[in-house]
Amino acid sequence: MTIQTTYTQARAGLASLLDTVTDNREIVIIQRRGREDVAMISADELSGVLETAHLLRSPKNAARLIKSLERVREKGHP
């Protein structure tokens, strides 16, 4: 789930917002007037996203990973 907030609201409740991001794995979109929005994501979550992107960068490796997932699902695992 994604939470959207304004810069002013984010600044006023920053400590609580940081806890929400890290405790609940939420992504927070901070809207800035006249500027590009910014996403707040936990460092651990970002690391996982970057690792996944790295693993899927190679089409050959991506195909192998997808095949592995399909085999696991065929065996009845979620």
TrEMBL record:
The protein's name: Antitoxin
Matches recorded under InterPro entries: Antitoxin_Phd/YefM (IPR006442), phD/YefM_antitoxin (IPR051405), YefM-like_sf (IPR036165)
Family: Belongs to the phD/YefM antitoxin family.
Protein role: Antitoxin component of a type II toxin-antitoxin (TA) system.
SUPFAM superfamilies the UniProt entry points to: YefM-like
